Amino acid sequence: MPKILIIDDEKIIRSTLREILEYEKYQISEAQDGEQGLKMLKEEDFDLVLCDIKMPKMDGLEVLEKSSELEKQPQFIMISAHGSIETAVEATKKGAFDFVPKPPDLNRLLLTVRNALDKKNLVSETKVLRKKLSQKLDMVGKSPSINHVKDTIEKVAPTEARVLITGPNGTGKELVAHWLHKKSNRANAPFIAVNCAAIPAELIESELFGHEKGSFTSAVKQRIGKFEQADAGTLFLDEIGDMSLSAQSKVLRALQEHKITRVGGDKDIKVDVRVLAATNKDLKKEIEEGNFREDLYHRLSVILIQVPPLKDRKEDIPLLVDKFLEDVANEYGTAKKEISKEAISKLQEFPWTGNIRELRNVLERLMILGEKTISLDDIKKYADYE
Q1: From CA 327, how far away is CA 356, in angstroms rounded?
Q2: Contact 4, 21 (CB under 8 A)
Q3: In the chain, alpha helices (H)
Q4: Cα–Cα–Cα angle for 249, 252, 253, nearest 5°?
Q5: CA separation for the pair 284, 291 (Å, rounded)
Q6: Coil, strand, or helix at residue 301?
Q7: What is the distance of C-alpha 11 from the center of its chain?
Q8: Residue 315: other Cβ atoms inside 10 A
């Protein structure tokens, strides 16, 4: 049940609003002036505040301003019999959801309350999702090799330098790309990822550069490519070693001229994109074999970041185990399981050919099948290694 606080120095207004809102099944509290209202906001969590502007001791705009310093911020609807456009604008600038004149129109008031609560729910959900995403993108580890990666990210991210991220499958190359974007000046712009290995060679150019309607048989409408979608942001080309030579030449042109042309089009389109690339292949060997353009390699590899395999950072396994057990527990809505020291030691002995991705899969299996405290016997039963 949403909690609403009514702050007004007129008792009859408080009583009227309470009666209306309680009939709509809202939980209502009252404060007779701004000081009492602010005190209640500090002591309790409210979803919404209906706040008068003209009050003794502390006016509504001051309450609104000071409430913005609270850890949990409710939505505010300001109410006043002395309202003006200037007052409404000032209240909105200070963070109010809306301004309602006295006496309030019942239908408008209830609609405004519902809309304000919807916004509060959206804000809360967004914060939860951002927290989950942030946790998912945590770069866990304190080993020298992973600390070197973190240090390089800190130095390189604020620049516009292109970065080539190398390392075996499952090591977290996309995670490095996310952090480069997150710590860059483009952090508020799009981060667009393309898995070049997952797209057929005949479709990769359309995927990257878009196409015009009718440019090929299945092109029934115009399509905006990933370069345009990432404009002002970051484009991450994963597994770029699998890209066709034809697409490579067009990517090279885009990097050189900051322009792309849609498939079937003849118009140059300017793009402002920072390109990050990743591969599990030895691109120098691919160049020797004629599978990768040397000029593109040098364009992409201004900075090289080598992501270490898990077998080279086994001292990080206890930290990763703790994180993944918590992540899986949160995903399944269950209690996080403990794990014995012997079990962790056994996990540190494995070669982890699938790297961090494989470790997470094993821990998910152990969370489902293992005992309340994951033991050495559970490792022997449910891990793939002897």
Answers
A1: 14
A2: yes
A3: 11-23, 34-43, 60-67, 85-93, 106-136, 144-156, 173-182, 201-209, 226-229, 245-257, 283-288, 294-300, 317-332, 341-349, 355-369, 376-382
A4: 90
A5: 10
A6: coil
A7: 45
A8: 14
What's the rounded Cα separation, in Å, for the pair 118 and 85? 25
Q: Which residue has the tokens 């005949």?
A: 202
pLDDT in the model for residue 385 = 63
Neighbouring C-beta atoms of residue 314, cutoff 10 Å: 14
Q: Which residue has the tokens 């969370």?
A: 367
C-alpha neighbours within 13 Å on the C-beta side of residue 22:
10
Closest CA to 140 of 339, 341, 313: 313
How many whole angstroms from its chain centre is CA 96? 26
- Tokens representing residue 297 in the block: 């390699």
Q: What is the pLDDT at residue 131?
A: 59
Alpha-carbon gap, residue 271 to 189, rounded angstroms: 13
Q: Give residue 323's identity as a one-letter amino acid code.
A: K
The residue with tokens 């809505």 is 333
Phi and psi torsions of 211, nearest 5°: -150, 160
Position 365 pLDDT exceeds 70: yes
Going by their DSSP bridges, the two strands 259-260 and 269-270 should be labelled as antiparallel
Burial class of residue 25, CB neighbours in 10 A (0-12, 13-18, 19+): exposed
Q: Which residue has the tokens 């002395």?
A: 82
For residue 326, is pLDDT > 70? yes
- Which of 47, 187, 70 lies closest to 124 in space, CA to CA? 47
